[in-house]
Amino acid sequence: MMTNLIIFLVLMTLGYLAGQVAERKHYKSIIQREKRFSGLPVIASRFPPTDKLFNQCLVSGNTVISVDYFKRFIAALRNLLGGRVTSYESLLDRARRESLLRMQAQAYAMGAEYVFNVKYETASISKGRKNAIGSVEVLAYGTALIASDSGTGREI
Question: Which domains does the chain have, with CATH numbers?
Fold first, then answer.
């Protein structure tokens, strides 16, 4: 009985540490790419800028991020006690930001000057017992505005 508890605690600690390392690495990558694409405005407005003539093209970015076992365990405890499930908040934040960056990369490669009417779609992908969340999928999409006189695009 005591051996099982020790094994459980060791595995939970390893899961926590591995999840923290992976999450920090992902956030570092996100921050670097956000700086890179900071010159490409992403606008939620439904109406495009009217200062010049643009070609329009749909762009999107999709991300699926899995929940690690430690976060799933903490979320299960939080569900018993009630309140915010903060262990999933960073998961959703990373998925949204990654999807937006992938959409921006696609727009940038096309030579876009703006991306407007940006929207998000989020879905949980169930897996395992009792339809527990296994992964979260986020799709970011919008309309890229490409100047009528621009070239074919840019290297990412």
Answer: 2-147 (3.30.110.70)
